[in-house]
Amino acid sequence: MSLLRFEDVDLGHGTHVVLPALTLSFQVGERVALLGQSGAGKSTLLAEIRRRLGNTAAWCPQGHGLVPLLSVYHNVYMGRLERHSALANLFNLVKPRREAWQTVETLTHELGLEGLLRRPVEQLSGGQRQRVAIARAFYQQREIFLGDEPLASVDPHQALRLLERIQARHATSIIALHQHRLALGHFDRIIGLRDGRVVLDAPTRELTLARLDALYPDSAATQGDTKDETPGEAKGEDRAASST
Questions:
Q1: Mean pLDDT across 41-57
Q2: Vertex 16 angle, CA 15 and 21, to 5°
Q3: Is 17 helix (H, G, I), strand (E, B) or coil?
Q4: How confident is the model at residue 244 (pLDDT cuts 50, 70, 90)?
Q5: 137: closest CA among 194, 80, 67?
Q6: Contacts from 63-70 at CB under 8 Å and sequence distance 24+?
Q7: Cα dist. 207→107, 211, 227, 229 in Å?
Q8: Exposed/middle/buried for 168, CB within 10 Å: 0-12, 13-18, 19+?
Q9: With 60 as the cut, is the pLDDT of residue 156 above it?
Q10: Mean pLDDT score across all residues of the chain
């Protein structure tokens, strides 16, 4: 079933075109990884996908998008602000709603943030802030997950665990990331962008780490991977990592 389609569309910001003449389609139930160097157009593409999907998609932005002075609870609660009146949201700042508190508490426990609901986000580590941003996306309770580098601030083992939780909650996901092994071992399809063009679009079963490294010609391989491994080998290593 088709989710959305771009047909010879120019995407960008105002009059600045980042992705010219884009033709691309996405299907319901796909897990798609977007790869490419910074500035390749991943964020531009995700922004337009988000605009088109509207309230059917949960959103986890690059840089977390949190309010530093507010608590973990209030930052997660912001995922549903539009579902309540302005007055109800104002009251919630002073006295959290019991039902909302319990739901957020469950989410934060799932993501390893136990005991931090009242702590201001500015006092958290980068990895903890990343998990708060993911918890906020989960709190939106939407069918599709869109993420712009949602695993950038955590170590490889934590990234794998978080990705597994994201995919357990969302049958359809489109995520920009740089971790080649995660892309190859845990997604159905990889779209590679370079200089505003789609230069790679293929099922992961047809790809290797070496082909993904070619998307980053101006820098060393992101994960230090130089061996041309098969998708099966990458998956096996990721499964081993998750069991340690």
A1: 95
A2: 100
A3: strand
A4: very low
A5: 80
A6: 64/129, 64/130, 64/132, 64/133, 64/153, 65/133, 66/121, 66/129, 66/132, 66/133, 66/136, 67/121, 68/120, 68/121, 68/122, 69/120, 69/121, 69/122, 70/120, 70/121
A7: 34, 7, 13, 9
A8: exposed
A9: yes
A10: 87
Tell me the CATH class for 2-242: alpha beta
Mean pLDDT to the nearest integer, 71-98: 86
CB 148 within 8 A of CB 177: no
Element (H, E) at 242: helix 231-242
> Taking residues 89-107, what's their average pLDDT?
87
Which of 65, 33, 63, 27 lies closest to 46, judged by CA?
Answer: 33
pLDDT of 67 > 50? The answer is yes
Q: Which residue reads 């909302």 in tokens?
A: 100
pTM of the full predicted structure? 0.84
**166-180 pLDDT, tens digit each:** 999 999 999 999 889
Whole-number Cα distances in Å, 227 to 180, 192, 221: 12, 19, 11
Contact criterion met (CB below 8 Å) for 216 and 183: no
Sign of CA pseudo-dihedral 7, 143, 69, 159: negative
